[in-house]
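Reopening this one. Same input as before:
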Amino acid sequence: MTGPAGRSRPARPGGADRPGAPDGSPGTWRNWAGNVSMRPARVARPASVEELAAEVRGAAADGLRVKTVGTGHSFTSIAATDGLLIRPDLLTGIRRIDRSAMTVTVESGTPLKRLNTALAREGLSLTNMGDIMEQTVAGATSTGTHGTGRDSASIAAQIRGLELVTADGRVMTCSPEGSEEERAVFAAARVGLGALGVVSAITFAVEPLFLLTAREEPMSFDRVTAEFDALHAENEHFEFYWFPHTGNCSTKRNNRSHGPVDPPGRLSGWFEDEFLSNGVFQVANSVGRALPAAVPAIARVSSRALSARTYTDIPYKVFTSPRRVRFVEMEYAVPREAAVAALRELKAMVESSPLRISFPVEVRTAPADDIALSTASGRDSAYIAVHMYRGTPYRGYFTAAERILTAHGGRPHWGKLHTRDAAYLEGVYPRFREFTSLRDRLDPGRLFGNDYLRRVLGA
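Same output, byte for byte:
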């Protein structure tokens, strides 16, 4: 997102805190946004799948529940526990690259940014990715992290195999080619919410490194909503950001290119992506938090200051960018055909309310996939994400937005704030019971359970 005088990308999570005691002793852990904290009974940092399985068996014997947490970029308490907290920061690196199958197998604690740069050195890339890369591969896929795409789907949809430790301490490898049980686990565990076991390794499909040309351009809210279907159809990756309190948007279109490589200049790239989108935007949000009445004026200046730019580079340098301004977020996936109506209702709600919103609203898309609890499961989807600067009251805005998005059959992002429960979610996920039945078989004692999972999956 863009800063008040800057570029057209919403501020996304940048560096992560390293909370909790690093020596395995109990301590208080906090997530990146600072809105979730926990104090586990003990902390483990296994360095191999064998050590991980031993930790799971030990916790079960001691009557402790088990959760794994990566860099803490979820805004929900999906990883919270008062039992054993597993930190996977030693489970990192590429295990193997299979160029004949075009897959890469990577340890679950590997940050996406390390995977992206390692693959680029090998002349390879993921097909699609989100706009942040601080998360671990397991944390990102387990919560359904996604970018935007007409034909290419979420990070989890690019998984070709999984290795996970189950509640009985088994190490299970699952894929579409495995046994009946392994196929069932694969169908669900790609977006597993940490409810089916602890993921220890992931095999992704990859492809030869390619180039993307990004075209960023300001556009009016009325135009982008009127042309949304065409913009989606004409571009491989389309997204836009609407600035509340204005009629202005910033759009981004990413499409494959034959080159040549033409990245932003070093100085201009730093000025727009670091100085404006992080530094100036941080100051503007701090001012808006202290003086809410100034927010609409700041938004008008921000949106009018945007300019167009075009650049070409390898995928992770186009899809992702550094985001250091901290916030809380709620995001819902609605049927793609409902996106414009929902967004117009959201705009009308903001305009008729006393709310003061300093963060743009982000809109992305994804094609239907076949993962049981993916937010795009079985339907072409559009994502509408609302944000508030950390420390700013957000409940009124999020509650009003959630009311609009759920009226369109919205599915909440598993790692972002929402108030939905199992009764609601069963109604919007046709394969919900398939997932919970598998959970009953794999973890009948709820070793991997917590309060969040009890709410969203049921007891």
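So the earlier flakiness isn't reproducible anymore. For the record, DSSP finds 14 helices and 20 strands in the chain.
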